[in-house]
Amino acid sequence: MSQTKFLLSEAQIPTTWYNVVADLPKPLDPMLHPGTREPITPADLEPLFPAELIAQEFSTDREVDIPGAVIDVYQQWRPSPLVRARRLEKALDTPARIYFKNEGVSPAGSHKPNTAIPQAYYNKQAGVERLTTETGAGQWGSSLSLACQYFGLVCEVYMVKVSYQQKPYRRGLMETFGASVTASPSELTEAGRAALAADPNSPGSLGLAISEAVEAAVKSGGTAKYALGSVLNHVLMHQTIMGKEALLQMELAEDYPDIVIGAAGGGSNFGGLALPFLGEQMRGGRSVRAIAVEPSSCPTLTKGTFEYDFGDTAGMTPLTKMHTLGHDFVPPSIHAGGLRYHGMSPIISQLKELDLLEARAVPQTACFEAGVTFARNEGIVPAPESTHAVRAAIDEALACKESGESKSILFSLSGHGHFDMQAYIDYFAGKLKD
Amino acid sequence: MSQTKFLLSEAQIPTTWYNVVADLPKPLDPMLHPGTREPITPADLEPLFPAELIAQEFSTDREVDIPGAVIDVYQQWRPSPLVRARRLEKALDTPARIYFKNEGVSPAGSHKPNTAIPQAYYNKQAGVERLTTETGAGQWGSSLSLACQYFGLVCEVYMVKVSYQQKPYRRGLMETFGASVTASPSELTEAGRAALAADPNSPGSLGLAISEAVEAAVKSGGTAKYALGSVLNHVLMHQTIMGKEALLQMELAEDYPDIVIGAAGGGSNFGGLALPFLGEQMRGGRSVRAIAVEPSSCPTLTKGTFEYDFGDTAGMTPLTKMHTLGHDFVPPSIHAGGLRYHGMSPIISQLKELDLLEARAVPQTACFEAGVTFARNEGIVPAPESTHAVRAAIDEALACKESGESKSILFSLSGHGHFDMQAYIDYFAGKLKD
């Protein structure tokens, strides 16, 4: 009986988030105001976010306290398990040691509640009544729905239309958690109406849904604010609870990862796991290979350019320096809806420019093949987004088999695929395109 | 920060199952052969089950060893968490302490793998190549699918037609785990063809699907055996790992349940949690109120008679003394497919006759109402089956509020509802009937 799960007690939930900005060898370029193109100030963000989240967005403190009320909620599922994928290792016949951080145990089934909970909390503290947001696959929307429910806020979700159609049960989950859900593009906003005028059959995109949610908040007269599920500094910071726990859990396992892997859409899942390890490295500790995995149909880091661009389609958000495919890029309707974003977190983009991480693009059928192998050995069906990390982890493990090296591989199983079974059914039916 | 989850380490996974037969104040009546109506012998069961499972079915040993290979698999998710439902308690404003055993963390999302894994293991050891089985909601079928995958067996699942149609994603899950799935009644067996001849639109039932699976095994010439997901003594015994863990976890919580609650379809979920506590009581230890909760549309324990009846519709199985609505009873198509069974485990039936447990029937809309309350406070959407236990737990907690008593309530959250969102969508749309 060899140990499989490396668990921490609730008393070991980290009490601070890690802010990688404090350790970056080159500071981030400032966000620019979409009108003036001057660096934005905290005041510029007030229509969108409460003061505390704005302060976190600009913070250069290395560690930021997690409020007790947030930890109280985290306790429902955190610390999440770090699992040694022993059956998978055996099936691959690899000398590698494969670990995964299982964020699928959260209420929404992914890592997203890690930031939804504090975002709802800080908004409630600031007297906000309503939160608007966008969602792709629905992971973020269901997370914010529950967070709003917990803190007594109304939640309005603009869901990318292709996901809204493909995933009625994700929608059902958001409604069970108490949110109202609208397909984007919608008739409720100017941005939505413009998109529908241009293409009545638009499948939507995360960028466009962001435009709609931002517009709804800005025009609320202050009762509503907006919440973003990835990309921004404060979001990545909230997600570092994954990596901070994993650092402790790798100690329990008496191991340390040679390679850390995560799927990257906006970058918060990858960053949440990898940044605390990269922080160790940047402060002179052990080094790791950090691999961000993206879909080859939306290759932001591997094929995008590093420049200032809008976060949304309509050009309402600040301009950020990041890897981007262009804010009007509409990715194909792949099943990994959460990875269909034209841009990338400025932090992850900067780390890529500094050669502190590797980026890799993979096609979706290869990802589902890896997802099925994982499910048949570890008993967990990965979310389509997470299969990207599984693919890379398996490839690295197979490279170890080839070379005879016994490396330690850690990846983020960012979510389960219980609401994505149609994707697997399509995969088995040979209907998926790369 | 008050403790929410009571976790055990993998080293604390119980190494034996508990066999309540050893402690029953009155022995079970023997099963009878369907042809001769004489007590059956172990040899009579050989066409269906491997020798080791037959031995367990007849065993009167109080503790039965769990094989190491089974514990190795259990480690992927066991021990499952015992959770204090603190937010729910607060929302109900009750002085009661509510705990739930979360079996939704398993690979199939329910308690069913607790017995699927050992059943597949013992069949593999006996040289069996194929397992046939039935499934209602799909929880059992997906559990056995994975178990067969792990031990290298082919898995053939007969799925009750109404569930097959309502739950394509459960079917997808079984196929992802490597099984083949057929809607029952089917054209593949005599029992299925007879049912279709009588009613081409039959929604099917667990009893009928059992007939089909049993027939397919019996006619295989020995290469296939049959696996049952509930009712039988050995199945309830495998499930006692839940209650054995819960006994240890209640100690961690420095508490002991006054009331233990579980949903009862065939009885293995309820029994798995309650029997170890009832065993303590029967051996002179602390007493508990054990409440088995069933749907009012399939009221086996509350309205059925205690007599010899067949386990299946076609009358191929042994006759067992149990609470039954009659083996030709076809329950309405409620969403809690796993509770649509005409009979009840002989062990649970006997305990009911001895007044060692209470039975309660609840209508489905009241169950979904409770399920939504639970989801909005604890972040977990319960399976429709599990909402029956949630309903009873909430009712007991509300009774405590009324009386001012601070009781300790423990219930089995037997599974999550990720594959049952249509039921919640129908509930919100006012489409459910009681």
UniProtKB/TrEMBL annotation, chains A, B:
It holds the Pfam family PALP. The modification N6-(pyridoxal phosphate)lysine is found at K112. The gene is trpB. This is Tryptophan synthase beta chain. The lineage of its organism: Bacteria, Bacillati, Actinomycetota, Actinomycetes, Kitasatosporales. NCBIfam families: PRK12391.1, trpB_rel. Pathway: Amino-acid biosynthesis; L-tryptophan biosynthesis; L-tryptophan from chorismate: step 5/5. Tetramer of two alpha and two beta chains. Its EC number is 4.2.1.20. InterPro entries: Trp_synth_b-like, Trp_synth_b_CS, Trp_synth_beta/beta-like, TrpB-like_PALP, TrpB-like_PALP_sf. It catalyses: (1S,2R)-1-C-(indol-3-yl)glycerol 3-phosphate + L-serine = D-glyceraldehyde 3-phosphate + L-tryptophan + H2O. The keyword Amino-acid biosynthesis applies. The keyword Nucleotide-binding does not apply. Keywords: Amino-acid biosynthesis, Aromatic amino acid biosynthesis, Lyase, Pyridoxal phosphate, Tryptophan biosynthesis.
